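Deliverable D4.2, example record:
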Amino acid sequence: MSAIILCGPCQYEDNNKGAKKWCTDCEDGYCEDCEKVHRSTKMSRNHTLISIADYQKIRDVSVKQNCDDHGKRFDLYCSTHDKALCISCVNQHKSCPDVIALEEAARDSKQSTAFADVEGTINGALDNIETCIKDQKSTEKNVENHEQMIRKNIKEIREKINKQLNVLEQKLINDLSVISAKCKSSLEKTLNQLKSADRKLMQLKEETQKMKKFASDTQVFLGTREMNVIVANEIETLTRTINAALHFKIEAVIDLDISSLLNRADGMGKILLQEIPAGLQFKDAKIDQAQKQVSVSTERGFRDLRLQLKKKLERRKTGGRTNVTGCIILPNGHLLIAEGSDYLEEYSEEGDYIRDITVSRSIFDLTYINSNWIAVTHFAHENRTGIQKIKEIYGLSRPTSYAKMINITDDCRINIKAYNLCWGISHQDGRLYIIVKEVGILVADVDGDILNTLPIDTCNVKYISTSKDVICYSNDVQNTVHCCDMNGKEIWVFRHESLIIPAGLSVGDDMHLFIVGCASNNITLIHRDGTTSKILLTPADGLSDPQAMYYDKNRKTLIVCDKTSAALYNVVLNI
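Output generated by the structure prediction step:
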């Protein structure tokens, strides 16, 4: 496309003259002379003229200004149908009360909410893309790390196998040498005995021949008897030697385990690929029309929401602590449950036990970060010496506790150091929010660096849940639930006689809040403005001292854990 914009009127007169201005209303260029005429004409004196340089910037932005049905220019606007009209379209909108001039409707459109919403939607989409790119790059890096780690493991296994085979080979060769030496020694002894008997008998033969040739009959007579005794003794010794003689055959019998391994193994192992949903969410910006619909659905969502039992899970009996303190649902549907021990229990969505993820210290709460990482809190201090405890008593030092990020695929760990008991933890948009006793809400990034501390009274606060815009936490002594913005400024406080010792909580759809009542033995839904609530589950639904919960927005599923079991509920609306 040519970069030169010609003057429209001049071009009509077969005069190719470069334009200096562009009319956004007429969508045509004007030279200096034609611009003056355009401005002086009554029909066009209020048109918007921009420089050709500015027009070049929006030249590729296609805005349809003519009606598809009639081919005429849009002149009117119907507010009822949110539709631009040409003069021929008016007959179809005679009954509409809000047909106005398009120019009037478009007045101050650059400062309108609709335009701001479009900009917000685009910016939101770009933020989503940036988040997804970062997530995928992080996953790509993890894949590379996994590959290098597996390559290293394969090499180490090969080296161990080679080392062990060398040891076994040398042992077998040593055994062979010992047995071979024993055979050779036995054979040498037999040969020496045979050679000795051979020499003696040859000597007796020579003596017999000499005696026969030179001795007298008397000497032969007496010598024959002596010779018989000597020969008999030699033959007896020779017979024993011959009877004791052995043949040897050495064989190697390979260990059955090694033979079986060589015969059965078709490789050193297998490379397994687990494809886990990334759990990424595209967060739409709200435009005016959508806001009205959301407002309606939000109210209906609170009024008509109910829980439908999906699955009752019987947890593995460990014989120890059974009070569940935290739980989450992973993107692949697996469940992770913490019960105050130094490990997490992993179950399938169907309730089948999969494994334990062992951690060095007792776990209180946990939160999901991405497809590979979770974060946990340790509510017990690390092992301290007597001197450390004395210093803490006299205020000379502070106890150290940790939150910890765990890669559940390669067991990598990252510590986040705090300076008092760590309780609840929640993740939102790349940040971790941690309840630290008598300190506040500690804010850290996913690299383990502490970013900020929100100075909130957390003396009796155990649990926290976050969303894009708010932080919610429960106070189990004052029986209150608090909602604040991301800077810690309080928005509302909820207290009701039906909610006693509030514990685990989770921000749901439309910012409504699910909350566990430990002593009241119920599950309550608090309206997003904190003014009203409704009870969703009671002991009649099978609750037994619940404490922990987690809401999966993607699956619309709520997990509630009590002392011995966990239950999954579908979050549905009454029809």
